[in-house]
């Protein structure tokens, strides 16, 4: 469509088809010469006219880009613009001398050019890929090259996978290479995992390899591993480790685990850990958990939707009641008062009501006027997330005075915050009464700044469509054409709906006609 329009106006200016095509190709050569490959590609796509650039010059430029790892994108653009493939011999020679071990760079250029890596370099890349970890790098190299890693590379991979416990990858590498594990490698892996206090890894490797460790465990070797299993509630594994090492977990670790299990209502796990360890929960542990459990149960109620509250609050309350029944210890007055004071200080109105209901204190009626005052304060301080959370919990809509909402709109408008502007519209239900003149000025500002994305956001936020002077829009069209900013040129047409004038199209053709000065300012 653009090419047909340009040809139509070119003919009106007395420029023949062949002459017009030659001018476009001259502009393409200028773009190539000064390195504006993106504009070269855009001009080819826009006009459909193939560039006439000598192949040897294109190959020289390919060599320059390949020697500079940061130019892979320009190389890809140049391939797309010229449909010329880089020389395989030239690229492979560069591969041997550049970017040793940087796999991601090689993959990028192999994908961009289709030129394979030389075999001697592939083995070096295997070693580097194994050092960086993962069978995926080896697989990717094999997929790219069809070459398998040598035995030394495989042994390096085994060491890495044993230390990182990537046993699936180790098995895949073993199947691919046919190289077997040695006992020396396995015993060294045991020593490494013991140094890291990773008993699970040792146990898993014994099961995986059938080779037993050649040492006895000490208490300091196992406590960190026990602590991790207790925190993650891996009690079956913990029991197996106790039997495996013949060492019991410490009282401190067990009491810490009891706190976590009771706080989360995991009474079955609590019973199981008591059986494994033979340790009872202490009085201090139970009282500490009560306070934390109360806070967890009611703290987040102001952030729940009605549906989420029904789904999640009930299990939490039941869990707390079950814990009291399990321990036989009631909430202390100190814990109740501390929790009550915390909710008052936080302004957590819904959480306060539910907490007072739970502990049996006479419930006070929620004062809607207090809630509306809180809504008002939140809008004034721009804490709209609080408004949304309280509205969901209380099902009471905000009734903030119009003047306060309008002032908030003006502040968001001045601060250039369309996201909060839209959120306020949704929460308040009040339409903004901004000055259309101010809105249009902001639109003009974003057009001047070439920020079509921000302009679109404010159009959606305010609901006010652009109503800009046509001469202003036409001037911006001219500016974009002069600077070769084709994306902004197209974007402005879409946002304003104003079609470019005949003068704009003549300017477009005129810019293409500038032979000598085309590469200086474009």
Question: Explain this structure to me?
Answer:
The protein has 31 helices and no strands. It has helices at residues 2-12, 17-34, 37-47, 55-67, 72-82, 88-97, 103-113, 119-132, 135-145, 151-164, 167-177, 183-195, 199-209, 219-232, 235-245, 251-263, 267-277, 283-299, 306-327, 333-346, 349-359, 368-380, 384-394, 402-414, 418-428, 436-448, 452-462, 470-483, 486-496, 502-513, 518-521. It is flat and about 100 Å long. Mean pLDDT is 79; it is low at 361-366 and 518-522.
A few lines on this structure:
With 522 residues, the protein is mainly alpha-helical. It is built from 31 helices and no strands. The chain is flat, with a radius of gyration of 35 Å.
Q: For the residues shown, what is the average pLDDT?
A: 79
Number of helices: 31
How much beta, percentage-wise?
A: under 5%
Q: What class would the helix/strand composition place it in?
A: mainly alpha
- The coarse silhouette is flat
The percent range for helix content is over 70%
Distance between the termini: 24 Å
Q: Count the strands?
A: 0
Low-confidence stretches: 361-366, 518-522
**Rounded to an integer, what's the Rg over CA atoms?**
35 Å
């Amino acid at each position: 469509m653009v090419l047909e329009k340009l040809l139509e106006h070119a003919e009106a200016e007395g420029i023949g088809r062949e002459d017009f095509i030659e001018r476009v190709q001259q502009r393409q050569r200028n773009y190539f010469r000064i390195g504006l490959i993106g504009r070269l590609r855009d001009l080819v796509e826009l006009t459909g006219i193939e560039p006439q650039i000598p192949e040897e010059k294109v190959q020289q430029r390919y060599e320059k880009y390949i020697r500079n790892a940061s130019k892979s994108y320009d190389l890809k653009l140049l391939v797309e613009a010229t449909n010329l493939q880089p020389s395989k011999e030239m690229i492979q020679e560069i591969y041997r001398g550049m970017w040793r071990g940087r796999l991601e760079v090689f993959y990028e250029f192999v994908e961009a050019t289709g030129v394979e890596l030389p075999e001697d370099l592939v083995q070096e890349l295997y070693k580097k890929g194994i050092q960086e970890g993962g069978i995926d790098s080896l697989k990717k190299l094999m997929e790219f090259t069809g070459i398998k890693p040598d035995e030394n590379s495989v042994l390096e991979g085994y060491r890495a996978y044993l230390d990182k416990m990537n046993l699936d990858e180790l098995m895949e590498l073993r199947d691919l290479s046919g190289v077997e594990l040695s006992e020396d490698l396995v015993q060294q892996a045991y020593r490494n995992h013991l140094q890291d206090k990773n008993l699970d890894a040792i146990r898993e490797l014994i099961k995986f390899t059938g080779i037993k460790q050649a040492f006895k465990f000490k208490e300091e070797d196992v406590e960190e591993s026990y602590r991790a299993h207790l925190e993650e509630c891996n009690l079956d594994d913990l029991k197996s480790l106790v039997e495996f090492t013949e060492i019991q977990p410490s009282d401190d670790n067990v009491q810490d685990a009891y706190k976590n299990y009771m706080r989360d209502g995991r009474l079955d796990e609590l019973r199981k850990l008591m059986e494994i360890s033979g340790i009872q929960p202490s009085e201090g542990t139970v009282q500490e958990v009560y306070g934390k459990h109360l806070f967890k149960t009611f703290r987040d109620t102001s952030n729940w939707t009605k549906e989420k509250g029904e789904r999640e609050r009930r299990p939490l309350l039941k869990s707390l009641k079950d814990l009291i029944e399990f321990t036989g210890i009631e909430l202390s007055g100190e814990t109740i008062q501390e929790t009550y004071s915390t909710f008052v200080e936080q302004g957590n109105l819904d959480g306060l009501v539910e907490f007072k209901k739970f502990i049996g204190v006479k419930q006070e009626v929620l004062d809607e006027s207090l809630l509306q005052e809180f809504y008002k304060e939140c809008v004034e301080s721009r804490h709209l997330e609080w408004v949304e959370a309280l509205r969901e919990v209380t099902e009471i809509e905000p009734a903030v005075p119009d003047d306060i909402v309008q002032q908030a709109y003006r502040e968001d408008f001045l601060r250039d915050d369309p996201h909060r502007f839209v959120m306020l519209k949704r929460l308040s239900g009040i339409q903004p009464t901004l000055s259309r003149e101010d809105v249009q000025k902001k639109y003009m500002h974003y057009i001047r700044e070439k920020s079509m994305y921000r302009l679109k956001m404010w159009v959606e936020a305010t609901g006010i469509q652009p109503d800009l002077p046509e001469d202003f829009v036409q001037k911006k069209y001219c500016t974009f054409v002069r600077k070769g900013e084709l994306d902004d040129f197209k974007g402005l047409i879409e946002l304003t709906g104003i079609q470019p004038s005949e003068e704009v199209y003549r300017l477009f053709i005129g810019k293409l006609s500038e032979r000598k000065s085309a590469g200086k300012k474009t």
